[in-house]
Amino acid sequence: MAVSVRRGAEEAACADVHRVAVTYTVTLDTPHGRWEVVEKGAQPSPNALRVAGGCLPGGPTEPGFPELREDEGMANETDEVELSDQDLRVVARYCAEIAEEALSIFEESHPEDRRPRAAVEAAWIFVDGARRTKLQRTSSLAAHKAAREAATEAAGEAARAAGHAAAAAYLHPLAKSTQVRHILGAAAHAARAAELTEGGNRDVGAARIEQARRRATPDLVAVLKRYPAAPARGNRATQLMSELDTSLRSL
């Protein structure tokens, strides 16, 4: 079955979905190579198709894309977690606070580019009681586009943090490890941005992760614990996210 995958209004590529018993693979051929997301379930999930096509922050065209393996994020498609609007606002507030503090790293290099700041503002609109709308989605995608276009790696990571803050409103109630990026992605990328401003000093990143741990409220931790542990394999931002995830689950 051919599936057309889109990033906003932009045609991205076509994916083929192959079903074998209850395991299926979404395969996407891109100029960067072949990407596969393997999941178990009764049918291909919309989330798997979006991840394969790069339509969500953290997709294969993003440097923050986590390595997905058959043994990670494999909860059955019928497994869901309880998630209220208040839970979503708890997560979005946490992400917005952290991403907002990292905005200066991006804006020092791109003072005229408001895309990451607009994403954080969209997150706050949701936190303050408005319904989640297309605003959060579109501003998140715009912030990730700004990250790809950033002049420095640190600025790009700060923009990604903003993108994840806006996307936090769309945390899905699916018991999959990949959903943890909606909860902790902003903190991980903000920590990586700070690390890069100090020449890649990992002590700086570790200190920011400790700050993020202390900032987490009991309500935030309760939401996190409803999901499987974050993916541990991947780039430095993914490693930082895994470290924060492990620390919070110990509370």
Topology:
Elements: E1 2-7, E2 10-20, E3 23-30, E4 33-40, H1 46-53, H2 85-109, H3 115-127, H4 134-149, H5 153-167, H6 180-197, H7 202-215, H8 218-224, H9 236-249
Antiparallel strand pairs: 1-2, 2-3, 3-4
Helix pairs in contact: 2-3, 2-5, 2-6, 3-4, 3-5, 4-5, 5-6, 6-7, 6-9, 7-9
> Which structural category do the helix and sheet elements fall into?
alpha+beta
**Any low-confidence stretches, pLDDT <50, length ≥5?**
1-78
Instruction: Identify the overall geometry.
Output: globular
- Summarize model confidence as the mean pLDDT: 79
How is the largest sheet built, in terms of strand order? 1-2-3-4
Write down the secondary-structure element order.
Answer: EEEEHHHHHHHHH
What can be said about the biggest beta sheet? 4 strands, antiparallel
Taken as a percent bin, the fraction of beta residues is: 5-15%
Number of helices: 9
Distance between the termini: 45 Å
